[in-house]
Write a structure and sequence with these properties.
alpha/beta; twelve-stranded mixed sheet; globular; 24 helices; Rossmann fold; about 850 residues; five-stranded parallel sheet
Length: about 850
């Protein structure tokens, strides 16, 4: 090779090498970070939370959704995450504002597909139609580990255009999707990160940076700044927009802006928020949103569904959609909520229907507008909802006893939601719309005799009504055939409940804090559809009508605070749908035993016991065993438990499974005894050691008690003798070759299980192993003090007490395959039950058929 040729070859290779380096450097330089914010308040903690949703050790493709209302900062946080972790991937791409691009022509959508390929593959690819772009994305990205952010996705078509399936991307890829619609994420992503508004400290800081260019408000603006922050409700968009608009303005201008915001929300904020409203798919959903925004915030979700269904709006699915779109929330008490700015946005939409003529709007809610319309009697048929809530000390109302005439409602033929407070009406009530579904009238002084507009009423709320008796023979009552909700709370002059005979569809009765109520009408028995009765704080009520226990549909009965109510009848078990009973702070001294025969009650608050029924049963049993207990007669029904052994095995805090195994093996037990304990250890050693290490209870050791409640009644402390008496050699015990459904376990002192079907064999015994904690100060327990066995299916209860007269147990004969059974154990107060393990022991199986079955399995 000549020197010239060698030099040319070397230079060519060097040139290619240099070009490769340049391309690599260019590639790195092109990975520029996205702009986040001039004032990144509260961002880092949220970025950390999103990143914690990712599993960077996974070889699969991870999809993470970021869900929240408009303006809450989804895009900002997604950008910050993109910047934080983007360099760890072979390629990355951020596709912004997909919703807005989708409204344009197909060329713009294909432009996003081309951008995605360009960002990751560093090449220009021309896409001629959307479906071709999908195939191209799949072909070119399937081998690459990429990070892609799909920002502001609003439809499934948008999602499928850029992320059709996991197979489109290489192992370890991460796809982040920001959206206002929860439905798009369900079943499609690995994790959903729910965006939250800013707390007060973050809100003040972000607002201050925009309004004052510093981290805290100026001294003269401290109070009014807090008012703006409160109005913004922690929404970053509002804090930034209002802060910028108020920058360098005086206090007087600030006050003017705040006053204006009460009626006319900021246009820039509302435009962003209204996107979610405009994206609602049908008019029903928009109507439901506006009704909630104007009238129904804070009401029980189920009540609202009943009311709006009565208006023909299919509210159950409609409200679900609003929740999924971040427009409405439901709290832990099932009440509807809405961000204040979304509420104002909805009310602003109504105002825009007729800015200068409120009588032409669909909903009237601002007091000055309502007073103007009612005073001038200018209301029109377009009005579907009206709310007027006046303060009690309203001077104008005092000076005008007959403040408004019912004539004001004559033209409002479409009125379906009417809310009044401290308002007086005079005239012929026949003028009130016959389309009413909701009538809420706080401070009503009398029931109108000629009210005939109730034929479609679904909910009546007459809180603080100044009446002694309600409509027993009035025309008003006779037309309430469709009424489902009746609320007379805080009506202190009411002495007896209404007659329920003409209210066949009533589902909810609320008579809370009716202090002079002394009688509940016997006609309550005719309410075949009632689900809730609330008599809380009816302090004069001494008894319930006996026939109330015949209500088959009632689910919730609230009697708490009824100070004079001293008895609940054993007939309680007839309430076959009752799930919740609240009766604290009453004169009731004993728990009706029928509660435990009930198939349905799961939560109680009664005689000082409060919580899940299964959790408080042990405490109730303990109280029954007191010599002074009013329920001591139950002890006459109990029979003895037969203990196998009380195992004094100390497992120090944090012991390993090897230490537990060693301690079990050191016991001097028979071969059959070891079968039981070895099986128990093999199945539960991990649970036991983790319990000792992680239990919140401070303790020196865990201990175990093992006993049976089967056919044997001889009480002994020798495990070997008991095993021989039980003929364990022929019993079906948990072990390596036996099915898992023969054992059940649960944290705490109660186990609920369904008895399996075991063909050809009989249930011979139930063995129970209890794991409980103790400390050096505790005295060694002699085992459980009592045991309760509840057969939910048969609604029977059997109660066993240690030391009661010996007799042959009838427990097993009462338990049949398919029965749902609950077993609860009770220890003395100084021992805490950590776990309860329960074994069903069957008699000897047909060995021939068992071996055939085993051979087929093998």
């Amino acid at each position: 090779m000549s020197i010239y040729t060698y030099t040319f070859y070397f230079c060519r290779n060097e040139s290619e090498y240099i070009n490769a380096i340049v391309d690599r450097i260019s590639d790195l330089l092109n990975k520029t970070d996205l702009f986040i914010s001039d004032n990144p308040v509260g961002i880092q903690s949220r970025v950390k939370d999103v990143i914690n949703c990712l599993d960077f050790g996974s070889n699969g493709v991870q999809l993470v959704g970021m869900w929240g209302m408009g303006g809450v900062g989804k895009t900002t946080i997604a950008k910050a995450v993109y910047n934080k972790i983007g360099r760890e991937f072979e390629g990355r791409s951020f596709l912004a504002n997909i919703r807005e691009v989708w409204k344009q022509d197909g060329r713009q959508i294909m432009g996003l597909q081309e951008q995605l390929l360009s960002d990751i593959c560093k090449e220009k690819t021309k896409i001629s139609y959307i479906d071709k772009g999908k195939n191209t994305l799949k072909d070119k990205l399937c081998g690459k580990r990429v990070l892609i952010v799909l920002d502001d996705v609003s439809t499934l078509d948008q999602l499928n255009t850029f992320c059709g399936s996991h197979e489109w991307f290489g192992k370890g890829s991460v796809i982040i999707i920001t959206t206002r619609d929860l439905v798009l994420l369900r079943g499609r992503v690995n994790r959903i990160y729910i965006m939250t508004v800013m707390n007060e400290s973050e809100s003040i800081e972000l607002f201050s940076w925009n309004a004052f260019k510093q981290a805290r408000p100026k001294v003269d603006f401290s109070e009014i700044s807090m008012n703006v922050v409160k109005y913004s409700g922690g929404l970053p968009l509002a804090l930034e927009v209002l802060g910028r608009n108020l920058f360098a303005r005086g206090v007087t201008e600030w006050q003017c802006v705040l006053e204006k915001l009460k009626r006319i929300p900021n246009a820039q904020v509302q435009k962003k928020l209204r996107i979610s409203y405009d994206d609602l798919e049908d008019a029903d959903e928009q109507e439901i949103f506006l009704d909630i925004a104007c009238f129904l915030i804070g009401m029980d979700r189920n009540d609202v569904i009943l009311i709006l269904n009565g208006c023909g709006l299919h509210a159950e699915i409609g409200i679900s959609v609003l929740v999924e779109r971040s427009l409405v929330s439901v709290d832990d008490k099932n009440r509807l909520g809405m961000h204040d700015l979304l509420r104002d946005m909805g009310r602003g939409i109504v105002r825009e229907e007729s800015p200068k003529s409120p009588e032409k709007r669909s909903r009237l809610l601002y007091p000055e507008d309502v007073i103007d319309v009612l005073s001038k009697q200018t209301g029109e048929e377009s009005v579907m909802g009206l709310a007027l809530k006046l303060p009690k000390a309203n001077e104008y109302c005092k000076a005008n006893e007959n403040f408004f005439s019912t004539d004001s409602f004559e033209k409002m033929k479409g009125l379906r939601l009417l809310q009044l407070a401290e308002v007086k009406l005079d005239g012929d009530f026949r003028y009130v719309s016959r389309e009413l579904r909701l009538l809420s009238w706080n401070g009503l002084s009398h029931i109108p005799e000629n009210f005939t507009s109730g034929k479609k009423l679904v909910s009546i709320k007459l809180e603080n009504a100044n009446v002694h008796l309600l409509w027993n023979e009035s025309m008003f009552m006779r037309c309430l055939k469709k009424l489902k909700v009746l609320n007379l709370s805080h009506s202190h002059n009411l002495t007896e409940s209404p007659d329920f005979l003409k209210l066949p569809n009533l589902e909810k009765i609320v008579l809370k804090d009716c202090r002079n109520l002394t009688m509940v009408s016997y006609s309550i028995v005719f309410l075949n559809r009632v689900l809730l009765i609330n008599l809380q704080d009816c302090v004069s009520l001494c008894s319930l009508p006996r026939n109330i226990y015949k209500l088959k549909s009632l689910k919730t009965l609230i009697l708490s605070g009824c100070e004079k109510l001293d008895k609940l009848e054993e007939d309680l078990e007839q309430m076959e749908s009752l799930t919740t009973l609240l009766a604290n702070e009453t004169a009731i001294k004993k728990v009706p035993f029928s509660i435990f025969r009930s198939k349905t009650i799961w939560y109680i608050s009664l005689c000082g016991y409060e919580g899940l029924l299964s959790d408080v049963v042990p405490s109730m049993i303990w109280s029954w065993m007191s010599p002074t207990s009013a329920l001591s007669y139950l002890c006459q029904r109990v029979v003895a438990m037969s203990f196998i052994v009380s195992l004094d095995i100390h497992i120090p805090h944090g012991s390993s499974s090897q230490e537990l195994s060693s301690r079990l093996k050191s016991l001097q037990l028979s071969k059959d005894g070891k079968i039981i304990l070895d099986s128990f250890y093999a199945t539960h050693s991990k649970d036991l050691t983790s319990t000792s290490a992680t239990s919140p209870v401070s303790k020196d050791s865990l201990k175990y008690d093992l006993f049976d409640i089967g056919m044997n009644c001889q009480n002994t402390n020798n495990l070997t003798d008991i095993l021989q008496n039980m003929n364990v050699n022929g019993c079906l015990l948990p072990g390596d070759n036996y099915p898992n459904w023969l054992n059940f376990n649960c944290q705490g002192s109660s186990v609920t299980f369904k008895v399996p079907v075991v063909k050809g064999r009989m249930l011979k015994s139930i063995m129970i192993c209890i794991v409980y904690s103790s400390t050096p100060d505790n005295i060694r327990s002699d085992g459980p003090t009592a045991l309760l066995v509840k057969n939910h299916t048969k609604a029977t209860i059997q109660f066993y007490k240690r030391g009661a007269p010996k007799c042959r147990l009838r427990l097993l004969s009462s338990i049949e395959p398919g029965n749902k059974v609950e077993v609860a154990v009770v220890y003395e107060n100084n021992f805490i039950v950590e776990q309860t393990f329960l074994y069903l022991v069957y008699d000897e199986p047909d060995l021939t058929s068992y071996r055939k079955k085993k051979n087929r399995v093998e």
